[in-house]
Design goal:
This protein is of the alpha/beta class. It has a six-stranded mixed sheet, with helices on both faces. A five-stranded mixed sheet has the order 4-3-2-5-8. Helix 2 packs across helix 13, helix 6 crosses helix 17 and helix 9 packs across helix 11. The longest helix has 33 residues. It is globular, with a radius of gyration of 23 Å. Bound molecules: adenosine-5'-diphosphate and magnesium ion. The site of magnesium ion has 6 residues, from loops. Adenosine-5'-diphosphate (ADP) binds next to helix 9, helix 11 and helix 14.
Length: 481
């Protein structure tokens, strides 16, 4: 079994230069009308944004009442907050969707953290194969990491590990839970209803790897904890990566379905908000979304996630471009064999195209002609491609804003200084995702929100957060108080 590390890339954020649809020299009225129709279909008006936010809040209330609702509102067993004084060394295993990261986290107190990490790519075959093989691969990556970093375990001691397993899991304790469903292209056989911690611990034990899975953590919860370590006023952890989801701090008295210990006042809730609008009553799905959804491994599920997250935005864009091509309104009706394949238009290309400020749209040309093997493209082609990218990207950011606004209104935290930590490559690299989110929040709450709410990149928050959770779990054997 191979576990080759991949290097992490650094792409700087660039300023955003938007296409003005009025400035495009259209080749025909038909093309102009088609572009206008796309603008109408993909634009989330301020009114719709507020309606979605209200509907989202109703979904939150339902999920807090009972299990099995569209927003699962999972109780994380993480109670209370961190103060930054914690010390110790822990491991984290972060299985997010695209990559697997092993992180060793050293907490030196005073809010200081040093980390070492190695990233491994998860093979597509492992995602949809035998569950045991997938968990064995995880154990092998951890074992290799211990070797690589010469982390030696003496005697009978075990290293405590926080396991960030970012799929919907019904948690039954800080290190126990059952998988509700796979998402993000995973579908390993026989795992639904099973405990991922048991599978991972078993894989460690069979290989005599001295690691104990001390905490099972969703990446949103880890992100919240990691951001809180530096910013004690953190109220929410959000993921905008392969998938999308959020966690926030709830008053236990508001969690009607909670049957456990009521001594603590607060608990972190993993919302699983990517599942929002399973009923398809509010989100403005287009034919391009539906086409992608039908071809996904989980049709009709994770509807909001599929309009927001990194795994899907490129494919939605590809569907729009194909439609324009088929109507002979783009590239003179020619298609490149590359673009003809599903999932070939990567969301990362969208970030580059968004940031393309050159008058000839040089970077866009490079992606179309060099990467996707289109023959010579015209400026008109490239402008329309960039406009489509902007529409799909902005819709994603505004839908994220609707969800975040729902949480901020539900908790009332928009009224005071509060921090939101966001992790994920989409948020990190997509130009102006943060400012588009903030603009959406301002439409809901007014200018005060810019003063009160800070949105920050919680880079690798899910790894560090899992280690923090392992630390807290080790301290308080069953729950984190
Ligand atoms: P995970 O969700 O597995 O933890 P990441 O946070 O790295 O992993 O997110 C991976 C997702 O981010 C992929 O779906 C990919 O399409 C998207 N992505 C990667 N690079 C970029 C980029 N430069 N711009 C926008 N999206 C990106
Ligand atoms: Mg992640």
């Amino acid at each position: 079994m191979s576990s080759t590390p991949i290097a992490s890339k650094v792409i700087p954020k660039a300023s955003r230069v938007k296409i003005d649809p009025a400035q495009i020299e259209y080749t025909s009225d038909k093309q102009k009308n088609a572009v206008q129709a796309l603008i109408d279909e993909f634009t989330i008006s301020p009114e719709l944004l507020k309606d979605i936010k209200n509907n989202f809040m109703e979904g939150m209330q339902k999920g807090l009442k009972k299990d099995g609702e569209t927003l699962a509102m999972i109780t994380s067993y993480v109670m209370g907050r961190l103060d930054g004084s914690e010390v110790g060394s822990y491991l984290a295993l972060d299985v997010g969707g695209t990559n697997l990261r092993v992180v060793s986290v050293h907490l030196t107190g005073g809010g200081e953290i040093s980390t070492r990490q190695t990233k491994y790519r998860i093979d597509e075959k492992l995602k949809v194969g035998d569950a045991k093989a997938l968990f064995d691969f995880m154990a092998v990556c951890v074992d290799n990491f211990l070797d690589e970093h010469q982390i030696v375990v003496r005697g009978d001691t075990q290293i405590e590990l926080g396991f960030t397993f970012s799929f919907p899991v019904l948690q039954t304790s800080i290190n126990r839970g059952t998988l509700i469903s796979w998402t993000k292209g995973f579908n390993a056989a026989g795992m639904v209803g099973k405990d991922p911690v048991a599978y991972l611990q078993d894989a460690f034990n069979r290989r005599h790897i001295p690691v104990r899975v001390a905490a099972l953590v969703n990446d949103t919860v880890g992100t919240l904890l990691a951001h809180a370590y530096h910013h004690p006023d953190t109220v929410m952890g959000v993921i905008l990566g392969t998938g999308c989801n959020g966690a926030y701090i709830e008053q236990i008295s508001n969690i009607e379905k909670w049957k456990g210990d009521a001594a603590a006042k607060e608990m972190v809730i993993n919302m699983e908000f990517g599942a929002f609008d399973k009923e398809r009553t509010i989100l403005p799905l287009t034919m391009f979304d539906n086409k992608m959804d039908r071809k996904s491994v989980n049709p009709n599920k994770q509807i909001l996630e599929k309009m927001i997250a990194g795994m899907y935005l490129g494919e939605i864009t590809r569907n729009v471009l194909l439609n324009l091509i088929d109507r002979r309104l783009l590239f003179e009706g020619h298609i490149s064999p590359d673009l003809n394949q599903m999932w070939t238009f990567e969301t990362a290309y969208m970030s580059t195209i968004e940031a393309d400020a050159s008058p000839t749209l040089h970077a866009t040309r490079k992606i179309l002609e060099s990467t996707l093997s289109f023959p010579a493209t015209s400026l008109n082609d490239r402008q329309i491609v960039k406009l489509v990218v902007e529409l799909v990207g902005k819709r994603a950011a505004r839908l994220s804003a609707a969800a975040l606004a729902g949480i901020l209104e539900h908790t009332g935290s928009w009224k005071q200084k509060s921090a939101i930590g966001i992790d994920g490559s989409l948020f990190e690299y997509y130009p102006s995702f943060d400012t588009d989110i903030m603009d959406g929040l301002e439409e809901v709450f007014g200018p005060v929100v810019r003063k009160n709410i800070s949105i920050g990149l919680a880079q690798d928050g899910s790894g560090v957060g899992a280690a923090l959770c392992a630390l807290l779990a080790a301290k308080h054997s069953t729950s984190v108080v």
